[in-house]
Amino acid sequence: MVLIKFLLVTAQIVFVTAIVSAEEPAAAKPAINLDERRAFGYLEDICKLGRRPSESEGMTKQQDLLVDHFTKLGAQVGKQEFNTAHPKTGVPVRMTNLIVSWHPQAKERVLLCCHYDTRPFPDEDEFRPKGTFIGANDGGSGVALFMELAHSLPAIRPTFGVDMVFFDGEEFIFQRRGGKFFLGSEYFAQQYRDRPPPYRYVCGVLVDMIGDKNLKIPIEPLSKKFAPK
Asked: Within its chain, how far is the Cα of 144 from the centroid?
């Protein structure tokens, strides 16, 4: 049942990427084939790395895994690095947004993004708030989805390019209340605003926690407010 729901979510997200072929004749559009079991296998591989908080050993292993995976499939992979102060010690922590680009020459692009860091601890767990948190759903499911989607993107000859961005530091918090979220996405947005690249994003989709066993996807209020159409 989990695999079926995972595939259904994948299909919804992939539909957004269809705009990259919007100007091609219908007969010329390549099929996007998704393998739900392979996608779930990627999720299992990610979880086997263990905890993946920012600047951890697990995060480094995950970065190596993703760079190798996407490079082999023909993508251009880059790293957007920045520092932030550790919320408990004040020591600088190096964070890395991973940017995976398909058809980098395109000046109009689609942005697909997720976060790939996990919380340091399962602070929402009332029984083990300081236990081990591997983030199968929260932090891993979006990554596995994009790893699977990447198998179809090389065959597309689009008008638009596609960037997959994996945000770091989205949940670098050490207490149940308080702390600063969304460090990676905020930095990415600031750089896009302050140092405009030679391309523009025509639309974007962010996925998070899409691997839940009893998944429900309501309309996200802020998206509805700022992009009602």
From this structure: 9
Per-residue pLDDT tens for 36-60?
899 999 999 999 999 999 999 999 9
Q: Provide the residue ranges of all domains of the chain, joining segments of one domain with +.
A: 2-226
**Contact present, 138 and 46 (Cβ < 8 Å):** no
The answer to whether the CB of 163 falls within 8 A of the CB of 20 is: no
For the stretch 73-85, what's the b/e string if a residue is b when 16 or more beta carbons lie within 10 angstroms of its beta carbon? eebebeebebebe
CA dist., res. 46 & res. 185, Å (int): 21
CA-based torsion, 103, 108, 112, 115: positive or negative: positive
- The whole model's pTM is what? 0.87
Instruction: Please give the single-letter amino acid code of residue 177.
Output: R
**Of 5 and 158, more confident:** 158
Give yes or no for residue 151 having a pLDDT over 50: yes
DSSP-assigned letter for residue 103? S
Query: What letter does residue 150 receive in the DSSP assignment?
Result: T
Residue from 219, 204, 211 nearest 165 by CA: 204
Kindly report the CATH class assigned to 2-226: alpha beta
Phi and psi torsions of 36, nearest 5°:
-65, -35
